[in-house]
Amino acid sequence: EVQLVESGGGLVQPGRSLRLSCAGSGFTFDDYAMHWVRQAPGKGLEWVSYISGNSAKTGYADSVKGRFTISRDNAKNSLSLQMNSLRADDTALYYCVKGTIAVAGERFDSWGQGTLVTVSS
Amino acid sequence: SYELTQPPSVSVSPGQTASITCSGDKLGDRYAYWYQQKPDQSPVLVIYQDTKRPSGIPERFSGSNSGNTATLTISGTQAMDEADYYCQAWASSTGFFGGGTKLTVL
Question: In whole numbers, what is the pLDDT of chain A averaged over residues?
């Protein structure tokens, strides 16, 4: 059974940084692209970023480009999202999401429970 | 950037057919995906590659995609289908979601 467990969320002041992590299990981690998708309170889903299975390719939403960095450690079956220069509109539940191919461009077939990031002074 | 537009809400009576649309420029040239999200739960994939159902998704869920519009159809809608539904597509290796549609079964 695929399991994705996020951690690292919390309350952070505007302009500060935060690092999210996701531990994956139940599948061959480096065979699949991994994504972050977020959902602001009471709002819809927003795709944030992806990283290919071998880390060669990454992609970002315009809203986070230049501020967020995605990375993965396949030896540890872990995914990370380094979030810098955080803003109030980054407040959201951040989901770790598994793709079904090694690169972007296909469906999301497994989602974690999410970790909540609140940006506020 | 690529914009996907969904109606904010759709209502349907139990046993009837619900249709949720998703509009985007030449969306029919891309694959459309549909996710269901119930309150306080993570999203679940219900349709992929326009028309395919993942294992475990009931046959009453179907999809189509042509021109500028993808459609999620739920036949014989049940109370348990009440949820938010999101369409999703890719453009230049960037993911985009529609704004979501709240399906009410009443």
Answer: 97
